[in-house]
Fold this sequence. Notes:
By secondary structure, this protein is an alpha/beta fold. The chain has one domain: L-arginine/glycine Amidinotransferase, Chain A (5-stranded Propeller), CATH 3.75.10.10. It is 25% helix and 27% strand. The strands form five sheets. Strands 2-1-15 form a three-stranded mixed sheet, covered by helices on one side. Strands 3-4-5 form a three-stranded mixed sheet. A three-stranded mixed sheet has the order 6-7-8, with helices on one face.
Amino acid sequence: MIALISNQISSQFQNATGIKTFPLMPYNKLDLPVSSHADMLICVIDKNVFCYSDYYNESKSIFDEIEKLGYKIIKVNHQCDIKYPHDIGLNALVIGKKIFCKRNYIAKEIIEYGEANGYKIINVNQGYSACSTFIIDENSVITSDLGMQKAFQNEGINTIIVPNNNIILDGYNCGFVGGCGCILDNNAYFFGSIKDTFIENCADIEAFFEIKNIKFHKVIDGRLRDFGGVKTFY
């Protein structure tokens, strides 16, 4: 297994997990605080990795490592721009055979692939669909977005709602919970402490994770920080 993650947290993540980790470098067409975030730079569906063409050229050595594992790199022609919603071309949330996204602004290659391969495309108002949601499993998520919660409930996906005001994302008022870590083999790795961040909701989250037999691990101390999540490849 290898992991792709922001260069801001890559060494800490590798030390915490023992997984070979490649740092994603900033992409100059995204706002600087999120320019190295995996959930802004990459979308993975099945064994396909969607990325911006020029970012592929800038980070070819990393994508070469992914290809060695049997993944196909699909370079999208989407025109990325620093301002929302033109920065969300790859910000699609994939859960099972469902793709949640702000459809009109997602790279057409993602929509075309999804439609051709049996995925249900679910249009939502939240453009940062991937950023906004921490995936526990195909039937369970954590989010701060009530619109996403409604979309998940319509699809029979259990949803824990948490506030996002205490999540740190430098340059912004707050970050998204989806960018605060990942789950690997029944281990939840968080970029910070849920107890220091979700004070009122912490017990509910811990109880839910206990039911799922998922153990908590802190990659760093302090309140949760949004570093754009993690993309892992087997």
